[in-house]
Amino acid sequence: MDNGWDRSEIRDEVVTLLLAGHETTALMLAYTVHLLGKNPVVRDQIISTTDKTDIKNPAKSLRQSTLLDRVLKESLRLYPPAYAIFRQPTEDVMLNGYEISEGTILCLSQWVTHRDHRLYDSPYEFRPNRWNSDSLTPPPTGMYFPFAAGPRRCIGERLALIEGKVVLGKILQNFTPESFAEDTLEVIPSLSTQPKDPIKIKLKQRN
Asked: 134: pLDDT confidence band, cut at 50, 70 and 90?
C-alpha cells in the first residue's frame, strides 16, 4: 500500500473503529443521560435547544449543536469510558525532574486527572458551561484526554462524538430523562469504566 500499511493492518484499524467504539459510545450515552436526569436545569435547556433543530436536516443540525458538544464533553470528563491509558518510553527520559527508564510502564488516568481540583473548579459537579468557548482558554495539554492523546489517540473520536450528538439529540426530542432520586452511580474499573449496578433511567414520553 502507498501509505506503508498492508491490508491486514488496515483491516485491524477498521475493526477497531467499528467494534471497540461500540461499547465506549454506549457508555458515554448512558452516563450522559444519567447526568441529565440528575440535573433537570441543564436537561431542560438542552431539550429546548434540540426542539429548534432544522426539521429538513435534523442530523446535521444536531451535529452542529455547541450545547450538545459541551454536555458530552463534560460527561466524558466526569465519566470517561476509558479510565486510564498506559505508555512505555522507548528510551530513557527525564520527566519533570524524574528519571524514567526505557520500557517503564506509565499509567495516565483520565479518571483522576479529570477530577483534580487543581485543574477544575468544583470538579465533581456536572457543569457543561465550563466548556463555553467564549469564556474558556484551551485546556493545557494533559488536562483533558478522554480519547487519549498523541499518535495513539483514539481513531474513533470524531465518529463517537458525531454519533453521540445525533443519538442524544434524538432521545431528547422524544423523551425527558429522569433519574431515580435514591440512585447513586458507582463505577468499577474493568476493560472500560463500567457501572457497578445497572443505570436506571425513567424516559418520560414527550408530547
From this structure: low
Any residues with CB less than 8 A from the CB of 150 and at least 6 apart, and which?
none
- The residues near 178 (Cβ < 8 Å, ≥ 6 apart) are 37, 40, 201, 202, 203, 204
Domains of the chain by start residue, with CATH: 7-205 (1.10.630.10)
pLDDT in tens, 155-200: 788 888 988 999 999 999 999 999 886 778 899 998 889 999 999 8
> Where do we find the cell 443519538?
167
Would the pTM count as exceeding 0.90? no
- Straight-line distance from the first to the last Cα atom of the chain, in angstroms, rounded to the nearest whole number: 54
- CA of 157: how far to CAs of 5, 12, 67, 104, 166, in Å? 21, 17, 18, 27, 14
Q: What is the longest distance spanned by two Cα atoms in the chain?
A: 62
